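Q: You know discrete backbone vocabularies at least as well as I do. I have my own habits and do not want them to colour yours. No explanation is needed for now; the record alone will do.
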Amino acid sequence: MKGTLFQEMDYGGLTFLWSYRNWSQQDFEGYYHWHRGFEVLAVHQGHGSVTVNQKTYELKPGMLFYFQPYQLHNVYAEVDESRPYERSVFHFDPVFMKGYLRTFPALYDVYKRMLQGLIALQGIDMIDCNEELNAACSAFQNSLLASSASSKDEQSALYLLKVLSLIIRKVIPGPKQEEHMKPIRQSERVMAWIENHYGEPFQLELLADELHMSKSYLSRLFRQETGSNITGYLTARRMQQACSLLQTTNKSVEVIGGQVGFTSTSYFISLFKRIMGVSPHQYRLRL
């Protein structure tokens, strides 16, 4: 598995991180990860898939994605010299932003619902207002270049307000209508199954039988739809839950390993250290 599952966010003295029209033409396979801040991803160019909350969305120009703090997600882009992946990414401290948003009740309500996971749709097709979204990204970038350090947080709040004003057109009222129009992918069925069984020893054959597919076809289809393999997703989900248990309980490492599906404590510790960069015990001590 590439990368570290948990990404530390260094805001450099501010309350946000901003990357404007970041461009990739090679080596963007993506990997499952989560981080402390809220993330808003605007796609300018590119094709691939985004996996979040047990759903798989198409990555394409005009899409806007958001990821809650500590939410497991994966962004996969099929890139080469003729098909670049271009995006603007906004990470921010969700608590700090509340102070700016409270004076805008309708937008603040949408923001709270997004933050609390009450809006199911996390990949929003903004193609019909893409010019406004691109203009908002450009205006934010220009304002940061012209602003003093003390006013940059205010500029970030203005950008978020504009993004929320665009989102509200798409998800209010009735986000479920759009969800029902979207066919359920097989990868989503796989992730739903894993959500119910990640605490058990994994057998691909049982999963394939339940979905009435061969193991090879199911594995190939999952990779086609998400850009990753089934065991990679399962491992990321198990590690995320293990981190949560280490953070919120006093359970032993042995018990936690068993609860997230590992029959061997030594293997759990070894895998955790390889993926997270520290042992489970060290991870708990850092909290």
